[in-house]
Design goal:
five-stranded mixed beta sheet, 2 domains, two-stranded antiparallel ribbon, Wheat Germ Agglutinin (Isolectin 2), domain 1, 9 helices, about 200 residues, 60s Ribosomal Protein L30, Chain: A, alpha+beta
Length: about 200
């Protein structure tokens, strides 16, 4: 089993700020789990791949996460991105992946855990109390290329459309509700919200 002092020195070598980032994530989540560590490490790796410093308090980047939950706690703590600042979006594919977008250049990089990441963690932290604890320790010290694939991607919607413009408002001509951020849809000459246009996640009772 890796000694705690060895882990701490290895963490510093991998990412000097990681312990503080994980402490922030754990404070939000009431504990620290492997998926938070994955989120934090992916956040650092994705921003580094774009050549952008973390954490950000501006809107230089947009991150699209492919799940919610504890993974996103780590991602937010590492990058400074948040749903509230519109620098983080959730597209729930049920996958621990994320796309990092440089809003200025339009460059987009998608990161995802490698298929064998858990097996590698078990080898890296032999003697750990459980697979869970092996992942918790190993994910903090493994190299980025042992953890993640990095792929350049092209967004299906221009980043400026994703971000939209402040102050743009229209009303749905079916339900009458206000639509912001240019999320309206035109069908048959009518301006509609996505729900009325047939893309609702709910049905009226």
């Amino acid at each position: 089993m890796i000694a705690r002092t060895d882990i701490q020195s290895l963490i510093f070598a991998v990412a000097p700020d990681l312990e503080a980032i994980l402490a922030e994530s754990a404070a939000r989540h009431d504990h620290l789990c492997p998926r938070q560590v994955l989120g934090a490490r992916m956040g650092l790796a994705g921003m580094a791949a774009l050549g952008i410093q973390t954490p950000r308090i501006d809107k230089r980047t947009l991150i699209i996460a492919e799940t919610d939950g504890c993974f996103v706690d780590g991602l937010e703590a590492a990058t400074g991105a948040s749903v509230g600042h519109r620098t983080l979006r959730i597209e729930d594919y049920g996958k621990v992946g994320a796309t990092f977008i440089d809003v200025r250049s339009g460059q987009a990089l998608r990161l995802a855990p490698l298929a064998n990441i858990r097996d590698h963690a078990a080898r890296c932290a032999q003697g750990a109390r459980s697979r869970y604890h092996a992942q918790l320790d190993a994910y903090q010290i493994m190299a980025d290329d042992e953890m993640f694939s990095v792929s350049e991607v092209v967004l299906t919607m221009p980043v400026q459309t994703l971000i939209s413009r402040p102050g743009v408002r229209v009303n749905c001509e079916s339900c009458g509700e206000e639509i912001i951020n240019e999320r309206d849809v035109t069908r048959g000459g009518l301006i509609l919200c996505r729900a009325c246009a047939g893309s609702a996640y709910y049905l009226p009772v």
